[in-house]
Amino acid sequence: DAGITQSPRHKVTETGTPVTLRCHQTENHRYMYWYRQDPGHGLRLIHYSYGVKDTDKGEVSDGYSVSRSKTEDFLLTLESATSSQTSVYFCANWTGADSPLHFGNGTRLTVT
Amino acid sequence: AQSVTQPDIHITVSEGASLELRCNYSYGATPYLFWYVQSPGQGLQLLLKYLSGDTLVQGIKGFEAEFKRSQSSFNLRKPSVHWSDAAEYFCAVGAQGSGQNFVFGPGTRLSVLP
Hints:
The structure holds two protein chains of two kinds.
Chain A: E1 4-7, E2 10-13, E3 19-25, E4 31-38, E5 42-51, E6 54-57, E7 64-70, E8 73-78, E9 87-94, E10 101-103, E11 107-111
Parallel strand pairs in A: 2-11
Antiparallel strand pairs in A: 1-3, 3-8, 4-5, 4-9, 5-6, 7-8, 9-10, 9-11
Chain B: E1 3-5, E2 10-14, E3 19-21, E4 24-26, E5 32-38, E6 44-50, E7 56-58, E8 64-68, E9 73-78, E10 87-95, E11 98-104, E12 108-113
Parallel strand pairs in B: 2-12
Antiparallel strand pairs in B: 1-4, 3-9, 5-6, 5-10, 7-8, 8-9, 10-11, 10-12
C-alpha cells in the first residue's frame, strides 16, 4: 500500500473551467509525480516534485500546473480544461534509488 | 532517451493456459525493469522488478519475468492463468536515482476465457 489517496475519484467538468486534483500521501516521501493515462500511450509524466515548493515539468506539461506546499500534498491544476485533457490521472511517489513508483487509484476526469 | 514497446495490445487466453506478455526496451545502460498490473478502476500494482543479478525474477501472483540483455526484452510469464488475472499489464523501464525517468509501455490488455 503506497498510502496515496487521490481526490476526487471521478469528475466531469466543462471546457474552460479550472480543475484541481489532489494527491495526498501518508508517508513523507520527497518525490511525487502526476501522470496521465490514455489508451495506447501508457502513462505519461505531467509534472513531478522533488520537495516542498520544488517542482518540474514532465513530458506532457502544457496546460497543467502543480503545487506542493506540504510534503504530503501534491496538487494538479488545469487552469482552463480542454477536451484533450479528458483522461485518467495518477499520482505516484518514489522512495529513491532503485525503488519502483507507487501509485494511487487514479482520478477519472471528463471534460465536456 | 529510453523507450518501451509492448507489441501486443490485447491478448486472450483460456483459463489454465500459459501466458507470455512481451516487452522490449531501449536504454543506453543497464536498466531497471518493472511489470505493473492494473485492474479496472484501480491504480497500478507492482508485480515484479529486475534491478540486477539473476535474470529470472519472481513476482507476486505466480508471475515471473526474464531479462534478456541480448534481446532487450523483459517478458512476463505465468504457467497457468486464472480468471482473476484479467487486467492490463504495463512494462516500465527506470533509471537509477531518477524517479522522473520512468518510461511506461502502452500496455497489454489480458482477457481470460472460462
